[in-house]
Design brief:
The chain is an alpha/beta fold. It has a single domain, classed as TIM Barrel (Alpha-Beta Barrel), CATH 3.20.20.70. It contains 9 helices and 8 strands. It has an 8-stranded parallel β-barrel with strand order 1-2-3-4-5-6-7-8, surrounded by 6 helices. Helix 4 runs parallel beside helix 5 and helix 6 packs across helix 7.
C-alpha cells in the first residue's frame, strides 16, 4: 500500500498508532478497546498471546458486535496468513468485519530469489482465494523469527513489498527499540510502500522514527507499568499527541 493512501485511510499525517491488546478475556479486551477509543486511537489489534487462536475467534465476534464501526485488526500468534485468511473469510461471511491481519512472519526468505518466494506466494494465493478484504501487515526480519543477517535487510524489505500491504519489522525482542539503522535501510528499500514497527516504541523515542515509519504497533510502551495486558491512558495520550504533532 502506498504511504499516502495508508495515511489517508487513517486521516493522520504522522505515524498511525494502533495499540496491541494482549487479550485475556472478553471483558479485558472490551475495556482496553474503549481506552484506545477514548484516547483518540483510530484502531487496535487483538492478539491471543496466552491461549490458542480458537479461543480468540468468539472474542473477536463479541468485540466487533460491541464496536461495530471501530477499526479492529487481529493477530493469531505465530500463525501465517495461510491459516488465518480462511478464518477471517469465514468471519467476514458471517458479517464480522476484521479490518487487518498482522502475521508475525510473512515467510519472506532472503535465501531465495525474488521470483522464488514459495511460501509468501502461496500465502498470496490463499488470501486471494479466501475473498477476505482486509489489510495485510506482514512481519519481516521480525522478532522471534529466524535470524536474518543485517546485510540482507534491504533485500528482505524489497521482497516484502511484493507480498503485503504494510511491511512490518521490529527490534530483537518485545519491548526492545528497533535499531534506527535497520529502519533507515527498510525505509530506503520499501520505497513508497507503507512501513511499520512493532516493538519498543514509547512516547520518549517516537520522534526518532516519525519521518521513516508510517505505523506504530505498540503494547509495552503504552501499558501500565509492570502490566502486560492493560493500556495506561496517560502514556497512550502522550504518544498520540506526539504523532499528531
Amino acid at each position: 500500500m502506498n504511504r499516502g493512501d495508508f495515511h489517508t485511510e487513517f486521516c493522520n499525517k504522522g505515524p498511525v498508532v494502533l495499540p496491541v491488546i494482549h487479550v485475556l478475556d472478553e471483558a479485558q479486551a472490551e475495556k482496553n478497546v474503549q481506552v484506545a477509543i477514548d484516547c483518540g486511537c483510530p484502531g487496535v489489534f487483538l492478539i491471543n498471546h496466552d491461549f490458542e487462536k480458537e479461543k480468540l475467534v468468539p472474542i473477536i465476534r463479541s468485540i466487533r458486535g460491541k464496536f461495530p464501526d471501530y477499526w479492529i485488526g487481529v493477530n493469531f500468534l505465530a500463525v501465517t496468513g495461510k491459516t488465518a485468511f480462511p478464518i477471517l473469510d469465514e468471519l467476514q461471511r458471517d458479517g464480522v468485519r476484521v479490518d487487518s491481519y498482522w502475521a508475525d512472519d510473512a515467510r519472506i526468505d532472503e535465501r531465495r530469489g525474488e521470483n522464488d518466494q514459495v511460501e509468501a506466494t502461496e500465502i498470496d494465493r490463499i488470501r486471494q482465494q479466501s475473498g477476505w478484504e482486509g489489510l495485510y501487515i506482514g512481519g519481516t526480519c521480525f522478532k522471534k523469527q529466524r535470524e536474518v543477517d543485517p546485510s540482507q535487510y534491504g533485500y528482505c524489505a524489497r521482497l516484502a513489498c511484493n507480498h503485503m500491504d504494510v511491511v512490518l519489522t521490529s527490534g530483537v525482542a518485545t519491548g526492545h527499540a528497533t535499531d534506527l539503522g535497520k529502519i533507515e535501510t527498510f525505509r530506503k528499500n520499501c520505497g513508497d510502500t507503507a512501513l511499520g514497527i512493532a516493538s519498543g516504541v514509547t512516547p520518549e523515542n517516537a520522534n526518532d522514527y516519525s519521518d521513516d515509519v508510517d505505523l506504530f504497533m505498540v503494547a509495552t510502551g503504552i501499558n501500565l507499568e509492570g502490566d502486560f495486558y492493560n493500556i495506561d491512558p496517560a502514556r497512550l495520550k502522550q504518544l498520540m499527541t506526539i504523532t499528531k504533532r
